[in-house]
From TrEMBL:
GO MF, any single term: oxidoreductase activity
Record has Oxidoreductase as a keyword: yes
Species assigned in the record: Pseudonocardia spirodelae
Keywords: Oxidoreductase
Class of enzymatic activity (EC top level): oxidoreductase
Transcription regulation recorded as keyword: no
Organism phylogeny: Bacteria, Bacillati, Actinomycetota, Actinomycetes, Pseudonocardiales
InterPro entries linked to this entry: MPAB/Lcp_cat_dom
Domain spans labelled ER-bound oxygenase mpaB/mpaB'/Rubber oxygenase catalytic: 60-283
Protein's recorded name: Oxygenase MpaB family protein
EC numbers on record: 1.-.-.-
Domain of life of the native organism: Bacteria
Amino acid sequence: MVDLSARLPGAVTDRLAALRSRVGSAVFSRVAGDEGSGRRARILGAEGPRWFDDGAAIRTVHGDASMFVGGLRALLLQSLHPLAMAGVAGHSGFRGDPWGRLQRTSYFLAATTFGPAEEAERVIATIRRAHSFVHGTAPDGRPYSASDPHLLRWVHVAEIDSFLTAHDRYGSTPLDAAGRDAYVADTARVARELGVPDPPESTAELAAQLAAYRPELAGTPEARDAARFLLWEPPLPLSARLPYGVLAAASVGLMPRWTRLPLRLPWLPVAERTVVRAGGHAITAGIRWVTSTPRPAPPPMPPVHP
């Protein structure tokens, strides 16, 4: 894909570069937080063996802007398990500190996917310690614990299904069938380190495990409250509401039909196949542009090249 700014007059190119830098920095700050630069250096700049090679499927998926859509879908899908939602509502601070939760999650994904093994292991150990303190009683009277292997696996499969579904639809380089299986197998390595028993190793196993959880899922008041907050009440300035709304619509458009009624989500199949899908491609392309490093200017001929 050609960087069109290379074809424009210098003054316009300079303004585009400044805009790209400003917006890209704002997105990075939201996702990575105040410690983002230091964490990026620890992940990308540190030497040492990694869990995954450069060409690994997990790096293709987790390094793409479609993760913004997939991440929001994952939160919506995960909320349908009453015990998992009780833990989130009672301990995660998603209302009081939603950006902090996003930043912690993004760091976990970056460290385990791209970071040196030592950093990945340190982050995993931190998460497992934090999980040991997350326990209580759900509104329906059942006890829950974030260290419960069954709940850990639900969170994992809902997350991986969401990331892969979003990448299939909006990723810059969608995976073939073998690549999709490889992605699920790569994420199983991380899941086992977190304490997930028997994580799926292929897309067929992923679909089967998701289906097995269906009888346990429900649209509780807590889940619907979380959905309203994520979709309609995000703590954002007015200038960011429109692009976030497009992102939210794209995420809802990828939710399975059976989730819509429990979470009170709209189901507009014609709009989702046209307007919402076009908006999803536009917003992910925009995020990809502002967060990527500009490439060297291509030669003047041919006018378009891969």
